[in-house]
């Protein structure tokens, strides 16, 4: 026999080729097992150092250390890692003989079975060959017991204190403790920007809340970084929409943000010699100035702007002239900047045409000619946080006056949040017409304005009003006016033409009601009262108030003269609205006097004198009206003639 070791990969030429293949595979496994046992202790030391570095990073130690300490710490860890890897320089790959020796020990059989299978016979003696063949057969029979075995690196000998297990436990704990900040905390170890930064670099940071909040800026410079970095203090609460401004007096500026912080373009250029960055805080998030170093991490909790609330303080009230008075309560965290009243027809008056183009009766859906009225509400203050407001709106001329509507109040704040009140069902106030013909025209006007498809019904109604003019409308002007309205409606083919018909019907009805002259008098009085009230509300000068007071006195005198003229034409005091209207004028004068708390004594004296004159005229009128009513007697013929004039 000789000691030449054959290559198991040689071509298979005899019956033990399969055994040789299995032996070659076991030999490879033995080589890898020996290599692992030699390398793993050193690799385990390296992984322990890396795990300890991650534990220190995720625990946030680098954030608390200055940049110089970070650099020193990183160098120390790098040195330890190199020292641990140094023994790998002596690492050598296992030889074939070492692998065979491992297989011999792993088989548990004497006389080195694995090595025996690799030996060859050089003698040609038949007896020797027979003995050699018998010995190989016995060895091949025991081949299944040859094993390389699992690697045994024996780490306990290299780490008797089991520090690797302690590092593993701390690694798992700090992994969950760091949360979403793992990458940021790990990167802080390599943040050496401050090492090369000038010594006199200054970093200033502050948060500017939106102007409408009325809150002052919050300083976040290095002077209060200790308070910002204390975890127990929690995130800094700021209004949503605030702006974080970070300014550096020199060097590079590197700010890392997360969460709801988004970089925004600055509105103005930064001062000369400084770097500046702006960030909008829309939700909770953090900001960290990585360069220049030495700045803490700031956490922010964005407080959202709550939507305002608005509700009716009491039910809407009708004013004497058909105006609508609304009282409402408004609340908001930073103040309401605008409020509106929105009116819509109730389902009883406007069927929903969005589901079907025709209703259940087969008729076309309502087609209003005008949009429902919407008007702004008066706020108690420019930015009302909590208060009760009041608005008076004259909707008596609106086509929707007298209709059943749903009232909804809306309020908006500076952030764009909008709130709506609970819908309130009501009948919109309208002007009261005493003339029967005027009332009929106003009713048909409302029908046409709310549904243009009913123009034929309105035309039929106008045509019916012109039946027997010698009995019901003997006045030629009234009859011709009705005929003109009917012709205009018959010729109307577009919505704009129908809107003109609606306007004409209102003008004709008010002309009949006011008898032509009283309308201009009422308009002049209303204009003078509104002008004086507006001047008092805005704090006008004394000269302007004196002029407006004189105009109001002249307008009230004209109203009294007009009422007296109408009283002379009809002596029946019970039918005249003169006492009620004069009383209303007196009430308005008292109201104006109460509102002129800052008026001059001369203005108050003029108002008081005006009230006295009106009271005397009212008493004189009542005496005159009573006497005229007694003299009138039972003149039914004259009364009937007056009643049927223009449909009265």
From TrEMBL:
Ranges annotated as biased composition (Basic and acidic residues): 348-364, 631-648
Domain of life: Bacteria
UniProt entry keywords in alphabetical sequence: Membrane, Transmembrane, Transmembrane helix
Pfam family, one: DUF4175
Region (Disordered): 345-368, 622-648
Transmembrane portions of the chain: 46-65, 71-89
InterPro entries with a match to the protein in the record: CHP02302_TM
Official protein name in the record: TIGR02302 family protein
Organism (species): Bradyrhizobium ottawaense
